[in-house]
Amino acid sequence: MTGSSEDYAPHPHIGGRAAALRALAAWRGAAPGAPRVVVLTGSPGSGRSRLITGFLMLCEPEYRKQLPLDEMDPSTVPPDLPAPAVPAAEGLTAAQVLWLLADHFQLDAARTEDVYVELAALDRPVTVVVPDVDRAGPVRAAGEPERLVREVLTPLAAVENVRLLAESSRPLAAELAYVLPPGTVQIIDLDEPEWADSEGLVLHAQAALNPGTGTEVPELPFTVDPAARLALGAAIGRRAATSPLVVELAVNCILMAPEGFDPADESRLPTTVGGALDLHARRLGADPETLRLMLAPLALAEAGGIPAQLWARLASAVAGRDMSRAIADGMLLAGPFVQFEGEEKEQEKEQGGTHTRGDTGRGTGGDAGPDAGRQYPERGGSMRTLLRLLHPAVGDEIRAGLPNVRAAQAQIAMTLLEAVPDQDWSKADPYVRDHIAGHTLEAGLLPQLLTDPGLFVHADPVPLRAAVEAVPAETLGAPARTYLRTAPLLTRTQAPAVLRAALLETAFVEDGLPEYADAIHQRLGLDLPWQTLWSLPVPGVTAVTVGSLPRPEGPAAPVAVLVVPAATPGAVPLGDPGDEGGPAVLVHGLVRPDALGAGVTDAGAGIPAGTGTGTGTSGDTGTGEGTGIDPRQILRPSEDERAAAPLVLSRGGHHLRVWDRASEEVVAALVSDAPFTAADLSPDGILLVATERGAKALRIHPAARATAP
Fold first, then answer.
1. Cα torsion at 552, 555, 560, 565 (round to 10°)?
2. What is the pLDDT of residues 115-129, one digit of tens each?
3. pLDDT given at position 8
4. Total Cβ atoms within 10 A of residue 207
5. N or C, which end of the chain is more exposed by having fewer CB within 10 Å?
6. Which among 140, 425, 133 is positioned nearest to 303, based on CA atoms?
7. DSSP run (H or E) holding 234
8. Per DSSP, which regions of 608-700 are E strands?
9. pLDDT band at residue 684 under the 50/70/90 scheme
10. pLDDT, averaged across the chain
11. In what ranges is there compositional bias, type Gly residues (predicted)?
């Protein structure tokens, strides 16, 4: 059954698929008996994306005005309604897709579970179309399509006023249908006879061979002669069965290398993607294995493709032999299966601009924070060429033929690592630094890579976070665990490299890894807005202040005063004797984490910047009973001292900003995944802050320009 309508004009973008369009139009119009959830599926290359794109043209009020609706079958045209929400899933995490929906419907939701509650509370049907489910995620091996179905689409489809159309692979379509009540989901499998479109495939092939269609079709005997063209198109369509991709590959191979092609020999036309590869190679007198090895790096690539200058090196690494000559001479061989795209090498671009709030990784979303949706410019640069396969199904075929995908990814990962100039990640090609983690993840080598703070700082945090989250937590080292803890801030704020470095520097100090914090300062050559002096993991800090404690000799010692619960070890009660429930304070050296001895002779007064970092522990609070410290002796900065200070502090729930008083420019902006409970700034520029987890001190560098708002 083809579902074609001979008396009507076909959809100009699809050229057929009438039966499927009727079902989708019924779903869109909520026709009696139409399911609330439809999942479009089929084998890779079956035309799912093309169908859903053509259907969305009919759903977009402005675009549908450009279509010949009066000439089309009315049963294939959905009613004229407001455009549905279309959070395209390709390259996005499940959380990103969900927050795109929240933004589209302007929901007042702070957590992921709130999104579904808010959607259910809307007094109207909610129509959502999610294409490319099986292409979700910034990292191939991280399992994001499965996560998207289980954590987003399943609860979304359970909301009674949601009408959902998704496009996915067969296993994911079956999973979604299985967990929902019977009758809720209709699966449209484009390979099934009910939905297949053999007539459309023939028309597709004939149009692709026609020089008069406006495409770059050479004038050949079987393209300019209408009868020969129609006969060849019919043969290509028959051989391709239900796959538009096989039709496209067959036409590409013929037109790119027509010499020696016999249109009368139907056996030389492919029936599968693998057949297209092998037949094309043999017709050009090449070994099919050579073609597959040439394309292997593209089949193993992450994101939008690999830089052209790395192609030969990566192919040689996978093949275990020099492939540079094969690549240089093989464009006719590889050309039908490859796309070339230009991209700015380092764009003046806005990172991660596909969402406007919420957490871009996994988890519960949480408070979006003050910087959610902000976008930061990166370094500028020149154009470069990226190579990618024509369709993911070509990659699936090549990957399936590799003897050991994990070993191949290991070879690619080592080659990418060798391509980092001087092992300086700031100089690495963007593909190398942003996607080496995806290759090492599939190779089983990612934990060994996660020891370099330069990679943490310079890599795009969205794919790096996704890769790290896919690794069993028990296999991660301490630096990787710190990165994973900090990654939600990096992705949520879409922070540029300098701010990523600053946030990681303070996180390393908090986690007792001062050597990694020092490495960020000393090795990366970045002008950070602060240096974290110490961190104290004392919970329950409700107020902080900077001050000074007079000493018998010499200048007063700068101190940090933290108001804590009375039961905090080492805290000095402020209330009356015996008042166990009253407030208490910890007194700590402001500049460095040394314990304060009697008379505060080692408070670190006057210690210059750059003397190192440190951490405290709950058992080493920097003060204790018997020190002889009387909090009443601590002197706070006067109002005149604060007014004369060159820096000024402003505070929000999840962010702090330090301003230069004279220029009124922000010199430091600190963001946190936990609300700040208290903050103070000393006249000489030491920022004292507290959250529910503890307190820390940061020396602000006024010369640095803030890279966050």
1. 10
2. 999 999 999 999 999
3. 84
4. 16
5. N
6. 140
7. helix 226-240
8. 614-615, 647-651, 655-660, 666-671, 676-681, 686-691, 694-700
9. very high
10. 87
11. 607-627
Structure tokens at 525: 């050559």
pLDDT of residue 384: 81
Residue 397 has pLDDT above 90, yes or no: yes
For 153, other C-beta atoms within 10 Å of its C-beta total 27
Range 314-322, long-range pairs (CB < 8 A, 24+ positions): 314/412, 314/415, 314/416, 317/411, 317/412, 317/414, 317/415, 318/293, 318/402, 318/408, 318/411, 318/412, 319/293, 320/411
Which residues lie below 8 Å from residue 54, measured CB to CB, with a gap of 6+?
A: 11, 13, 14, 17, 21
User: DSSP strand E in 394-540: where?
Assistant: 530-536
Short-list 449, 452, 422, CA closest to 436: 449
Rounded-to-integer distance, Cα 78 and Cα 60, Å: 10
pLDDT digit string, tens, across residues 583-616: 889 998 999 755 454 333 333 333 333 333 444 4
Amino acid of residue 252: N
d(CA 648, CA 629): 29
CA dihedral 687, 691, 694, 695 (to 10 degrees): 10
CB 669 within 8 A of CB 530: no
- Give the separation between CA 411 and CA 440, rounded to whole angstroms: 9
Report residue 94 as tokens: 């499940």
Q: CB 656: neighbour CB atoms within 10 A? A: 19
> What is the per-residue pLDDT across 228-277, written as a single tens digit (0 to 9) for each?
999 999 999 999 999 999 999 999 999 999 998 999 999 999 999 999 99
- Please give the Cα distance from 66 to 221 (Å, whole number): 35
pLDDT value at residue 358: 40
Tell me the C-alpha distance between 640 and 617, whole Å: 35
Task: Write down the pLDDT at residue 566.
Answer: 87
Q: What is the CA radius of gyration of the chain?
A: 31
The residue with tokens 């996560």 is: 147
| 178-221 pLDDT, tens digit each | 999 999 999 999 999 999 999 889 999 999 999 987 678 999 99
What DSSP letter does each residue of 148-192 carry, written as one string?
A: HIIIIIHHHHTSTTEEEEEE--HHHHHHHHHHSPTTSEEEEETTS
Q: Give the length of the chain.
A: 709
Q: How many CA atoms lie within 13 A of 168 on its CB side?
A: 30
User: What CA–CA distance (Å, rounded) separates 205 from 597?
Assistant: 85
Count the Cβ atoms, other than its own, within 10 Å of residue 80.
11
CA distance 74 to 78: 8
Locus of tokens 């028309």:
203
Greater pLDDT, 476 or 356: 476
Close Cβ partners of 632 (under 8 Å, ≥ 6 residues apart): none
Specify the residue for token string 């996704």.
466
Burial of 168 (C-beta count, 10 Å sphere; 0-12/13-18/19+): buried
Helix (H, G, I), strand (E, B) or coil at 341: strand
What are the beta bridge partners of residue 660? 647
pLDDT tens sequence across 526-546: 999 999 999 999 999 999 999
> 630: burial class by Cβ within 10 Å (0-12, 13-18, 19+)?
exposed
Q: How many whole angstroms from its chain centre is CA 445?
A: 20
User: Which tens digit of pLDDT belongs to each residue from 415-432?
Assistant: 999 999 999 999 999 999
Q: What is the spatial distance between Cα 339 and Cα 508, in angstroms, rounded to a whole number?
A: 42
* pTM recorded for the entire structure: 0.85
Joined tokens for residue 695: 């307190």
Question: Under DSSP, is residue 650 helix (H, G, I), strand (E, B) or coil?
Answer: strand
Tokens of 206: 């004939």
CA pair distance 414, 345, nearest whole angstrom:
22
Q: Pick left, alpha or beta for residue 124 (phi over 0 → left; psi -120 to 50 → alpha; otherwise beta).
A: beta
